[in-house]
Design a protein that fits this description.
single chain; 546 residues; alpha/beta; Rossmann fold; Luciferase, domain 3; GMP Synthetase, Chain A, domain 3; 3 domains; seven-stranded mixed β-sheet; 25 strands; globular; binds adenosine-5'-diphosphate
């Protein structure tokens, strides 16, 4: 028997319309590329978003058209998220850190009609101009006074909005309509597109705050350091208006001192981003001897948070939790808030728990399988490849049947490429990315575990473990490390420090000191680049043998 309840489509624009009415005092603070700090309430942003939507109609943008952005976190980018989706078009966020040929590939693959560009990225677009589609229209995201002197034939964002009506009848888009498009950085092959719907985006916006309970409270301020060009800034541009929080948008200035001063001045309560940015902020916190005023909650994701980082922030009164997820999952699949029974546990037990990837969100199902695709128990011990299923997970890649076939299994689950275990309470432990595991003598060694142990040594600032080929053992782990100061501990010292946690055969065979580690376009340590850089490296043991 069918129930007798209304079926209203879940629409992205309704999140902003709700905030403009119910959370009218909250809004967006943006450190802009022009150098100023801009403030607007959600009602003001709603009016500007309607103006933008009217302007987009005027430019001929229709249902399903792709509108691309090359932009930092800021209120104009937020207006594009809502205005583009609001009229039934698709907001395609492009990661400006991708190599030029990948940017060209995805603009072509997505068939973008319009490209909105922040001032910072105008030179990038000038360099690509000859290779971009001739009919791609450009809009520079600034006002007339700040329009750059450029050979580009580009419109000015503020002029586009200026004479438009501040109201619009938002169309009744069906909830399965595409709303956002984001390509994964693709370490091999072409980037692959995740095409989010209104429904998946609204469900993600609803479920994350229910679990990540330390971060969300009306009236507080939240800062996505994770860029809006990377998986919708993990959904924060939707969570914040929904929960009545003010977004503090950091714009282009993401180094430790820049983040510290904005967070301090704007009393940011909660910050979200990848470990590398929090390492930068931590150095500034140590230099100043205090945390930014009001800062109390830190969410780390994108790669495993080093234990030493969790301890350092917690020791300064900042609650740390990890979130795990991926572009294909909108992106969040877990939250790291401790269960109530752990709140009063001893400090080290609580930190141990926080070193895991967290517990699953409602609506995200996990399945661990062995090499033959057989389901493994969720006993917290057995490891295998993690598959996921849920309303916020892609069903296929955007126009890429080959990649879809490779990622989905026969039961319709999506393969994450992560090797993990799950405990009976839905707690996820990521052992490694399948391609980063080190296979030694038929046994797997987790690079994440070794990195965690090595960075807890006071002389190690950051590190990565990579697999080096070995004739007898297949592969052996080698530690590539950035020292914290002048001291460069010998391999034996590091072994002594790591010994309590590992068997002897699991320890790295060598340590190589470097000045810095290469990063991917999403701000993670690029092991692919490291593997290429050390392709000709020979293990000490083999050097001695020759
Ligand atoms: P990309 O694949 O382009 O780097 P994603 O953000 O989609 O971008 O990366 C997803 C991957 O990042 C996951 O499959 C996982 O390997 C890793 N990851 C994300 N969050 C965590 C975490 N908290 N702990 C460990 N690994 C993580």
């Amino acid at each position: 028997m069918q129930g007798k309840m209304m079926h209203r489509p879940l629409r992205i624009i309704d999140i902003l319309a709700f905030a403009a009415e119910v959370h009218a005092d909250a809004g967006i603070v943006s450190a802009r590329t022009e150098g100023d700090v801009h403030r607007a309430t959600y009602p003001q942003i709603m009016a500007r978003t309607a103006q933008l939507a009217n302007a987009l109609h005027g430019l001929g943008v229709g249902t399903g058209d792709r509108v691309a952005t090359l932009a930092w976190n800021g209120h104009r980018h937020f207006e594009l998220y809502f205005g583009v989706a609001g009229i039934g078009a698709v907001c395609h966020t492009i990661n400006p850190r991708l190599p030029a040929e990948q940017i060209l590939y995805i603009i072509d693959h997505a068939d973008d009609r319009l490209l909105f560009v922040d001032l910072t990225f105008v030179p990038l677009v000038e360099g690509l101009r000859d290779q971009l589609p001739a009919d791609l229209r450009l809009v520079i995201m600034t006002d007339r006074a700040h329009m750059p002197d450029t050979p580009l034939d580009a419109l000015c964002y503020e002029e586009l909005l200026a004479d438009q009506p501040a109201g619009i009848d938002w169309p009744e888009v069906p909830e399965d309509t595409a709303a956002g498009l984001c390509y994964t950085s693709g370490t091999t092959g072409h980037p692959k597109g995740a095409l989010y719907t209104h429904r998946s985006t609204v469900l993600h916006a609803l479920t994350v705050p229910l679990s990540q309970t330390t971060s969300f409270r009306a009236g507080r301020r939240i800062m996505p350091v994770v860029p809006m060009f990377h998986v919708n800034a993990w959904g924060l541009p939707y969570n914040a208006p929904l929960t009545g929080m003010t977004l503090v948008m950091p714009g282009p200035n993401l180094d430790g001192p820049g983040l510290f001063s904005l967070m301090d001045a704007e009393r940011v309560y909660s910050g979200w981003g990848v470990p590398t940015v929090w390492a930068g902020l931590l150095s500034e916190i140590e230099a100043q001897g205090r945390v930014p005023e009001g800062f109390a909650d830190l969410v780390v994701g994108g790669s495993a948070a080093p234990r030493a980082m969790i301890e350092a922030y917690e020791a300064r009164g900042v609650t740390v939790s990890q979130a795990w997820g991926m572009t294909e999952m909108s992106p969040i699949g877990t939250h790291g808030v401790l269960p109530p029974r752990m709140q009063d546990a001893p400090e080290q037990t609580r930190i141990d728990m926080k070193c895991n990837a967290g517990r699953r969100l409602f609506g995200v199902d996990f399945k661990i399988v062995d090499d033959d695709g057989r389901r493994q128990p969720h006993d917290g011990q057995t490891t295998g490849e993690l598959y996921v299923r849920g309303n916020t997970v892609i069903s296929e890649y955007f126009e890429n049947p080959g990649a879809t076939r490779a990622a989905m299994d026969g039961e319709g689950w999506f393969g994450t490429g992560d090797v993990a275990s799950v405990d009976p309470h839905g707690l996820l432990t990521i052992r490694d990315r399948a391609k980063d595991l080190v296979k030694s003598g038929g046994e797997w060694i987790s690079s994440i575990d070794l990195e965690n142990a090595a960075t807890s040594h006071p002389a190690i600032h950051a590190c990565a473990v990579i697999a080096i080929p070995h004739p007898k053992w297949d592969e052996r782990p080698v530690l590539v490390a950035v020292p914290a100061g002048e001291d460069r501990p010998a391999l034996e010292d590091l072994h002594a420090h790591m010994a309590p946690h590992f068997a002897k055969w699991q320890m790295p065979d060598d340590v190589i000191y470097v000045d810095d580690l290469p990063l991917t376009a999403t701000g993670k340590i690029s092991k692919l680049t490291l593997r290429e850089r050390f392709a000709d490296y020979v293990l000490p043991e083999l050097r001695e043998a020759t």
